[in-house]
């Protein structure tokens, strides 16, 4: 498993980090606002944010004396999707023959 994929799964292993990602889905948040949602100490939340940053799932920017965090685009979906495709290649085929929501006819499978 590539290092970055390992970092992503490490980041996802803790429920606090998963909650932080869910909280950031609506947009950028200050570190203090993120920490205020949890009973953990500020330094603990800071370490969680650091793990998410190392995994490439969040970015930070400074605005005066505040640190603002935001999600990194589709990084999570692409990384997890790539991993799932490598361990479940049959899912790619199933998606290609499954009917699309706007169609009642299944699509023809792609030749491999």
Key descriptive features of the protein:
Arc Repressor Mutant, subunit A; 112 residues; 3 strands; alpha+beta
Brief summary:
By secondary structure, the chain is an alpha+beta fold. It is built from 6 helices and 3 strands.
SSE layout and pairings?
Layout: H1 3-12, H2 15-24, E1 29-30, H3 31-36, H4 42-54, E2 58-63, E3 66-71, H5 75-87, H6 89-97
Antiparallel strand pairs: 1-3, 2-3
Compute the separation of the termini in Å.
24 Å
**What structural category do the secondary elements indicate?**
alpha+beta
CATH architecture of the domain at 3-71: Orthogonal Bundle
Per DSSP, the total helix count is 6
Specify the CATH class of the domain at 3-71.
Mainly Alpha
Number of strands: 3
SSE arrangement, N to C: HHEHHEEHH
Low-pLDDT segments, ≥5 res: none
Order of strands across the main sheet:
1-3-2
> What general outline do the C-alpha atoms trace?
elongated
CATH superfamily of the domain at 3-71: Winged helix-like DNA-binding domain superfamily/Winged helix DNA-binding domain
Mean pLDDT: 83
Beta-strand fraction estimate: 5-15%
CATH fold name of the domain at 3-71 = Arc Repressor Mutant, subunit A
Report the helical percentage: 40-55%
Rg over CA atoms, rounded to whole Å, is 18 Å
Give a quick account of the main beta sheet: strands, pairing sense, barrel closure.
3 strands, antiparallel
């Amino acid at each position: 498993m590539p290092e970055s994929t390992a970092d992503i799964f490490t980041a996802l292993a803790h429920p606090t980090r998963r909650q932080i990602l869910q909280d950031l889905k609506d947009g950028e948040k200050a570190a203090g606002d993120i920490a205020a949602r949890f009973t953990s100490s500020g330094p603990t939340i800071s370490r969680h944010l650091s793990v998410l940053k190392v995994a490439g799932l969040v970015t930070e920017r400074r605005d005066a004396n505040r640190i603002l965090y935001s999600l990194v685009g589709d990084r999570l979906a692409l990384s997890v999707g790539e991993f799932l495709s490598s361990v479940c290649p049959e899912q790619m085929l199933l998606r290609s023959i499954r009917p699309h929501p706007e169609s009642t006819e299944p699509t023809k499978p792609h030749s491999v």
